[in-house]
Model the fold of this input.
Amino acid sequence: MARFLLRRIAQGIVVMILVTILVFLIFFGSGSQIDVARRLAGRNASQQTIASITHRLHLNESLPAQYWHFVVQLVWHHNLGYSYYHTQPVSTIIGHAIPITLSLAIGAAVIWLVLGVLSGVTAAVRRGSVMDRVFTGLALFFYSLPTFVLGLLLLFLVYFQLAKRGIRIFPGQGYTGITSNPLKWLESMILPWFTLALVSAATYMRLTRGSLLEVLGEDYIRTARAKGLPERRVIFRHGLRSSLTPVVSQLGIDLGTLVGGAIVTETVFGMPGLGYTAVTSITNQDLPVIIGIVIVASGSVVVANILVDIFYAVLDPRVRLH
Amino acid sequence: MALLEVKDLHVSFNTDDGAVRAARGVSFSVDRGQTLGIVGESGSGKSVSTQSIVGLARGGSVTGEAIFDGRDLLTMHRDELQKVRGAQIAMIFQDPLSSLHPFYRVDWQICEMIRAHEPRTDAKAARARAIDLLKLVGIPQAERRVDDFPHQFSGGMRQRAMIAMAMALNPALLIADEPTTALDVTVQAQVLRVIERLQNEFGTAVILITHDLGVVAEIADDVVVMYAGAVVETADRDELFYRNHHPYTEGLLRSLPAYGGERARLIPITGQPPSLIKLPTGCKFHPRCPYAFDRCRAEEPPLALVYGSSSHRSSCWLPHTVEGRESTRAQLLGGRTVG
Done:
C-alpha cells in the first residue's frame, strides 16, 4: 500500500512538472521580454511597472533560468505571482476564491451522489418498472439540460417568482462565508448546489444503474442469495459495493474538474469562486491570475486522481497486488 | 419419508422469442444422508430445477411441488424460504472464484453466513467456527488463511472454502451444482472426497449436479438423467451404469473414456440438444437417437418402470425387458453400429 501510494504521488509530481513547464512556455516562452512583461502587467501599465516585472521575474535571463525562478517561487514561497490589475498577490485572490468553489463542489457532489446512486439502485433493482422508467426519463431530461439553463430556470422559479410574492428564502446572487454565517451560507449555496447536482446526478444514476445491473448478474450475488441473506443486504453489501468502482472514478474526474472552477454556475449565481475569477481575469487580461488558476486547477485534477486510486485500493482488495 | 421430494416441477421463462420451457414435469427425491446425481448436458434443466426449488431461478414461472422436510418450498413465503436457504439447504456452484465475493475476506464471508441465521453468535465465536470449518475442509494454516481474500486462494481451496461456508450451519441438504467442473482433474477428486467425508460426518444429503458421469460413478447413490428439461431415466448408480435403458444414457456412457475398455473409441452423441422454445414432437431425444422409430416421433414416452425393477424408470419406447430391448435395438440398427 505504501509503495503504491508513493508511486502514485511520484507520478502526480511528474504530471505537475509537465503542467508547469507547459504553462511557463505558453505564457513566458513567446515574444521578447518586454512583450512578456507587458502582458503580465495588464492594460495601461507604466514603464516603471514593466521594468520592475522584468527584474522581479528575471526576464532578462535565459528561459531555463526563468523557469527555475518560477518554480522556486511557486514551491518554496507558494508565490503564484502578483496581479497588477488588483494590486494583490495572486495567491490572495485565489485563496479567497477556493473556499467558495470548494463549498460549491463538495456540497453539490454530496447531493448528486445521494440522488444519483439511490435512484440508480432503485432503477436497477426494479428494472423495467414504472420507477425505472421515471428515473431514466428524468435522468435524460436533466442530462440534456445545460447548466446555464437549469441555473437560470431555478433562479426564475425559486428565487424570482417567490421574491415577487414577497417570499425571500434564497438570495439570488452572492456568497456568504460559512464562518461568518452558516445559515446564510447554506441559503446562498442551495440553488447553485442543485444546479450542479441535478445535471450530474443524471450521469450517476445511469452509471449506478448500469453497473449494478451488471453486478447483480454475477455468481457471487447468487451465492449471497443462496446464503439466505435478506435481499436488502444482497443489493447493498454485495451488489452496490462492487458496482461503485465506475461511480468513484467518475466522481474523481468530476470533482477534480469542478474544483478548478464551476465557471457557468458561479457566473450565473454571481459567486466569486475560481471559475468566476477565471472569467473576470480573462476579460481584464489579468494574466498572472489566469496562470495561477490554471496551475491550481490542474493540481486539483491530479490530486483528485490520486485520491480515486487510493479509494480504488480501499474498495477493491485485488488492486493492491497488481 | 424422503428429505426432499420434487413432484411434477415445471419451470418456464418468458422471452421475446417465446416461452423457454426449462423444466417439464421433473420429479425426483433424496433421502437423508443420500447422494443424488443429476446428470445431463448444458441446458438440460438440471440447474434450473434445483435453483427454482429454493427460489433462485428469478423471473421464471414455477409450478409443481417440492416437499422439503414436510413443507412445500414452492408455496412457502419468500422470507421463510430465505431462512431455509443457507441454513437447511446450502449450495455450492461451478466457478468458486466468481462465486465468492472478490471484495471480502473469506473470514467475513463465512461469518456473514453464520450470523445471518444465528444473529446471537458473537463475532469471535463466528470467527472461531470459520477457522474450524476451513480446517475441516482441509485448508492448511486455516488460522492465517481465513484472513485472505478469495483471489489469494487456489481454485481447489476456493471450492473448499465454498464448501466450508455451505456446511457452516450443518444443513440437511447440500446442492452441489457442477462443483468440480471448473477445477483441475487432480483437484476434482480432492473436492469430491471432502464432500463425501463431510456427508458421512454430518449425515448431509447431497444433490450433485454434473455433466460428468465419472463424478456420479464416484459418489452418487441414485442417478437422475435429464434431457431437454425432463427426466429421461432414473435408477440407482449400479443399475444405471450396467443396465441402462434409455438411449441417451447409453450415449452419455459411450462418450466416457473408461467405457468398454482402453482401446474403445469414444462415441459422441450426434447432433445438438433441442431448443427449449421449440421442442421436437414425441420423444425429445428422437432426432439424435440411433434407434428412433415411428412411435418415437409421434408420442412422448412416459417415465415408466423397466426391467421389472421397482425403482428403475426410463422414458423410452424400447421394450421394457432386457431381452426385448436388445433384440429390438439390433433389429432397428439393422447391422449398422452406433456412432
Observations:
- Chain A has a mean pLDDT of 86.
- The domain at 91-321 of chain A is CATH 1.10.3720.10 (MetI-like fold).
- Chain A touches chain B at residues 218-220, 222-231, 233, 238, 241-242, 315-318, 321 (CB under 8 Å).
